Amino acid sequence: MLVTRSDPEGRDTIWKLLERWEGRLNTAGRLDFDSEGLLILSDDGALLHALMHPSHELWKTYRLKVQGLPSPETLRKLKEGIKLEDGPTLPSKWKLLKAGDRHAWLEASLREGRNRQLRRMCEAVGHPLMRLKRVAVGPITLGDLTRGKWRFLTPAEVKELKSALIKAT
Questions:
Q1: Which of 24, 60, 136, 162 has the most CB atoms in a 10 Å sphere around its CB?
Q2: So which residues are the catalytic ones?
Q3: CA 98, CA 56: separation in Å to the nearest integer?
């Protein structure tokens, strides 16, 4: 499903599942069509703005399946930041989770969210992305929610998220 209000091609959007709240909620960021995972929606405009504003540098964590097996040197380069056509990336966190014969599973945490950034970073180091799933935004984790499911954040989670935003600035 797309993370948009409407699609000119008529594809399903998240609002098909959340039509009851359409017009009252907005998303903190997006996932492209080929990605999946955690989205945070809210009617709190200040919170959404803070979540998306680059000055807060809130960590977002992803699980990635890439072609090939990145070397320790490649992972070091990704961690330190690499040059993309729109400028260098900030330092980030990368670790190998599982190595296969033709692909590897990685975990990456970024403090920025440029358009298709992880796809472009993986492509730049010669390991094209095969699958991408966001598993955390700051202290909020996807947990065991399956595709297409949602839940309300608890008051404690909202407080923890706001606290993380304050610490990140």
A1: 60
A2: 32
A3: 31
Query: Does the residue 23 lie in any domain?
Result: no
**What is the residue range of 100's domain?**
58-136
Query: What is the value of pTM for the model shown?
Result: 0.90
- Count of domains for the chain: 1
Q: Is 161 helix (H, G, I), strand (E, B) or coil?
A: helix
Instruction: Give a yes or no: residue 16 inside a domain.
Output: no
Placement of tokens 């989770």 in the chain = 97
Say which residues have a Cβ less than 8 Å from residue 58's Cβ, sequence separation at least 6: 51, 111, 137, 138, 164, 165, 168
Give the pLDDT of the chain (169 residues) as one tens digit per residue.
Answer: 788 888 889 888 888 888 888 778 888 877 888 899 999 999 998 898 888 887 888 899 999 999 999 999 999 999 999 999 999 999 999 999 999 989 999 999 999 888 899 999 999 999 999 999 999 999 999 999 998 888 999 999 999 998 888 776 5
Quick check: is 95 in a domain?
Answer: yes
Domain holding 117: CATH number?
A: 3.30.70.1560
Residue 61 to residue 81: CA distance in whole angstroms: 16
Burial class (CB in 10 A: 0-12, 13-18, 19+), 134: buried
Torsion sign over Cα 31, 33, 34, 37? positive
Measured in degrees and rounded to the nearest 5, phi and psi for residue 9 equal -90, 0
